[in-house]
Amino acid sequence: MKHLLIAAALTLTATMAGANGASAASPTPSPAPEGSPFGPACAAIEGSLAGIADQPVATAATQVPELSTLADAVKRAGLVEKLNSAEDITVFAPTNEAFEAVPKETLDQLLADKEQLTNVLTYHVVEGKKAAADLADGTLTTMSGGALTVKGSGEDITVNDAKVVCGDVPTSNATVHIIDEVLMPE
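Structure (tokenized):
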């Protein structure tokens, strides 16, 4: 269920990322109004944003093409219902490109091992709807019991070594921050 929440959150994050339309070359802007998606990857998912705000996170992820790998992983892990029924969560959702950066053999093994997949996916989910303004330097405890290190502020945030490329994407039960790497528990 934790993996499902993570996947759903990741998907939603990617979906909301497109709403802003900022480019990677843009100077660091001031933070977007609370609840407004921001970041260079938001433009790619702009068309998906309107349709996901009223959907639970796992369902929302399936509506964002850039989060299709995450959505598939959440389904494989059996986390869809768990994530969709969770109240007030934050999902750090890796993009399809983030999954493509994982060596194929490693990814294939992960997708074939439901327990390990669940552990990795739930490592991307934390309790509480956390907007970028709530993500000050510090540590967050994940659904899997692991710890995520958050650095930065405003629109320049990293989670472990992953950069938030589209943040503050809303779904009915989660805030999604789309990230450029798959987070692996230690």
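The first strand starts at residue 89 and ends at 94. The domain at 2-179 is CATH 2.30.180.10 (FAS1 domain).
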